Amino acid sequence: GLLDPKIKAKGKKYFGSAADPAAISRSTDKLILTSDFGCYTPENRQLLPDDVSSISLKWDATEPSRGSFNFGNADTLVNFAQSNGRLVRGHTLVWHSQLPSWVSSVSSASDLTNVINNHVTTLVSRYRGKIYAWDVVNEVFNDDGSFRSSVFFKLLGENFIDIAFKAARAADPSAKLYINDYNLDGPGAKINAMVALIGRLKSRGVPIDGVGTQAHLILGQVGGVASQLQVLANTGLDVAITELDIRIPKPDSAAKLAQQQTDYNTVAKACINVSKCVGITVWGVSDKDSWVNSVFPTYDSPLLWDNNYVRKSAYAGVDAAF
Ligand code: XIL
């Protein structure tokens, strides 16, 4: 059965959810997060553009101006996890999005190296021993497998990845260090680029432990997940499904919800069956709070609890796989 929240402690795979201070302030979310999930990833959901109540672990939240760090919301989430004996995935250290403009304005490679080192060292040291795994770099690739032209890549080439991982390892030698990306669910240029990059990082001795596949999926399009997880595992790294949701083209129907149950089962089984897959994180609790509503407006209902916090059949799909 699923959802012994301490499954990780028993050496099995964890089942986690995105969470943030807003979620744990809502009593129903809090109840579900503590009863059903063993690992939390800060989502940093902003319900309104000026709502900072939940921003926790992304760069715009933690270091909004250079050298000036905010940890209040991240501390809230990490303390909640600690007091409940849960794991935390730290998300994320170096990402082109939710990046404050002062970072994008850095203009020299040496200055940017200092900026990355200081940011990574400060965050990872603060939570040493409390964050189980970090997404050290997030979404470095375009879908065609080329590097995204972030300020990091423009000034440092792929060496920005080496810099970030080395700083993270030095700051917490026991945290698991991940590279994370989306659209790794099917074969093609992007996953090929990821596998090739991992090979280069390993050959340069960069301290990397895992690769995360976000798995923001679409109903009926999950058939490639199992084989691609194995492709990622074949790099020798641990793998994790880090942001799972399976969005339904509007409108919902009974048939689509049944398909979603099947799809969740397929994805959960894929992780169970790949020995290097350490766990699954779903990207939130209730459909009503999912990021999908704002980002993919023609889709809906991607999660395991509906708008009224009723467990969906999708939950049974996951449960049956564990
Ligand atoms: C999203 C959150 O879900 C939103 O609430 C927030 O406003 C923006 O970020 N890939 C990632 C996540 O790595 O951090 C993103 O989360 C979803 C896509």
Automatic annotation (TrEMBL):
Belongs to the glycosyl hydrolase 10 (cellulase F) family. This is Beta-xylanase. The active site is at E243 (nucleophile). PANTHER family: ENDO-1,4-BETA-XYLANASE C, GLYCOSYL HYDROLASE. GO terms for biological process: polysaccharide catabolic process. PROSITE patterns: GH10_1, GH10_2. Its EC number is 3.2.1.8. InterPro entries: GH, GH10, GH10_AS, GH10_dom. GO terms for molecular function: endo-1,4-beta-xylanase activity. Residues 1-321 form the GH10 domain. It is an enzyme of class 3 (hydrolase).
